[in-house]
Amino acid sequence: MKHYELPVAEPLAGAAPASAPEAARGREHIVFDNLQKRYQGPQGPVAALSDVSFAIARGEIFGIIGRSGAGKSTLLRTINMLERPDSGRVLIDGADVGQLDEDGLVALRRRIGMIFQHFNLLSAKTVAENVALPLRVAGVKPAAARVRVDALLDLVGLRDKADAYPAKLSGGQKQRVGIARALVHEPQILLCDEATSALDPETTQSILALLRDINRKLGLTVVLITHDMAVIREICHQVLVLDGGRKVEQGEVWRVFGDPGAEATRALLRPLQHDLPADLAARLSPEPQGPGASGVLRLRYTGAGRAQGVPLAALAALGPGATLLHGGLDRLGGHAQGSLLVSVPAGILRQEAARAALAADQIEVLGYVAADA
Ligand SMILES: Nc1ncnc2c1ncn2[C@@H]1O[C@H](COP(=O)(O)OP(=O)(O)O)[C@@H](O)[C@H]1O
Ligand SMILES: [Mg+2]
Fold first, then answer.
1. Which CATH number characterizes residue 37's domain?
2. Are 223 and 302 part of one and the same domain?
3. Is 70 in the pocket of ligand 1 (CB under 6 A)?
């Protein structure tokens, strides 16, 4: 019971994204070594996982993202051997989970909590009974179970709903019950399979804040799969991008967001980006047309160089005619990144010094717009 005395207050919305203190995170907790998995589909074999190798550090929130069918659920389920790879190994604390016998698997699954998109609660049981169920199955005495369940309901902010039935709860409350139930055996790992995909944006924020809180307070390793980059941005430290069963990218979240290397990653990021607005795109031509034309520049900030922000002097260097058109900066893991669209008088772009500055600063000329009619 040692970890759970602290009742958690309603988590702060919009708290800093990076959660567990760096010092609390540590060495390799889960290692995936060259996993392969095929299924027999109606049209022949489907390669769900191909050559997948990576490691998850203890205490981190690790996101796995990919479009539908990328192999995310299959990969997640190899951690507790709900899915066995055809070859390759999954090591937890150095031990090959594929070698466990039945008793070993039962013990392993108790050390790994899991939550799901559709909550998987029993509708005929109350909130407290749902949370208590794994304890009952494990033979824990009712009085001891009750103490534990109360502490967990405090942790997820649902003490007053102990005797309610799931049908009376909102989606966010149901997921809180799912989280409490996943934590009953004091797991060291929490697996989240699209845990917020059935929730509205506001509820998603509160569940993500709770997961961040739990990660920080209990030092759990959280492995989270999602198709939504906004979820990754919100709470993950590391992200792995799966595409067609293969790992196409992995890294710290701010690095992958600031400078995605794989086309699959760029496609997943597109909905979050400040793209060229349609009205501006329609007016853009490849060469300046007529006097008074302006060049439209895209300034991209990956977060790598100017970690603390973008000095306005960098814009001033583009001359007094520079105009901010569109865009914005986000802060991710302490790094400012994003993109800005700026227009400058076309003449500036013909100057040697300006060209050099553009080249040095990853500034892209998108095109030109004619002077306002
Ligand atoms: N039990 C199964 N039988 C046959 N094919 C499966 C099975 N489970 C998953 N697949 C296939 O494997 C691929 C990966 O599935 P999955 O891991 O569920 O992806 P994701 O969670 O990223 O949507 C998909 O093509 C899917 O259709
Ligand atoms: Mg899935």
1. 3.40.50.300
2. no
3. yes
